[in-house]
Design brief:
By secondary structure, this protein is α/β, with parallel strands linked by helices. It is built from 7 helices and 7 strands, in the order H-E-E-E-E-E-H-E-H-E-H-H-H-H.
């Protein structure tokens, strides 16, 4: 059974994107904080995402709690970035400004309705992995051809980097380093 509440929809999206829900609640040091949900990435990213529903939690309460979380992270010398996803009625502009002083704020607004899932994805896209979709298997090759054509006008160094893309990430990195080294050397030779 899936949770069709706004918090449930956000939770499903984040867990599908590699976040782990903190099932025992949010605890920082010896302090506990009550939010509708809290997540950390399963990978090594130092991030904390909390979800609050303004339909049943007043915006001033959300503000106090997120300021408390930010202070607790600072006191504990945490390097985690803090993101607040607010669902439900949009908080006032002054509350959003106050919240954004201590964390990144993503107010999803109303995510009910036919296009609710797309609206939600748009609001929390910064938390989701980048997805590249191609209509057909031939599309990446066509895109690469277009890129090669564009690179032709950008100079030999950029062309080498684009050609290296066929051989993978490490080849691109190597081509980038070579390009930077050659440009740095040329720049240094021209200085008095």
């Amino acid at each position: 059974m899936s949770d069709s509440t706004p918090v449930g929809l956000i939770s499903t999206k984040l867990m599908g994107a590699g976040y782990r829900r903190m099932t025992d609640g949010l605890k920082i040091g010896s302090l506990s904080f009550e939010f509708d949900a809290a997540f950390v990435p399963e990978e090594t990213s130092a991030e904390l995402v909390v979800v609050a529903d303004s339909a049943h939690d007043p915006e001033q309460s959300i503000l106090r709690k997120i300021e408390g979380v930010a202070r607790a992270l600072d006191i504990n010398r945490s390097t985690r970035s803090l993101t607040l996803v607010v669902t439900g009625p949009r908080p006032s502009d002054s509350s959003l400004v106050s919240m954004s002083r201590v964390c990144r704020v993503l107010p999803t607004g109303n995510i009910a309705g036919v296009d609710g899932e797309q609206v939600l994805e748009n609001w929390i896209a910064v938390l989701l992995p980048l997805r590249l979709s191609f209509d057909s298997p031939a599309a990446p090759i066509a895109s690469a051809d277009g890129l090669f054509g564009t690179a032709h006008h950008l100079g030999e160094g950029v062309q080498k980097i684009v050609r290296a893309a066929h051989n993978g990430q490490s080849s691109v990195a190597e081509a980038m380093f070579e390009y930077i080294d050659s440009e740095s050397s040329a720049s240094m030779e021209g200085k008095p």
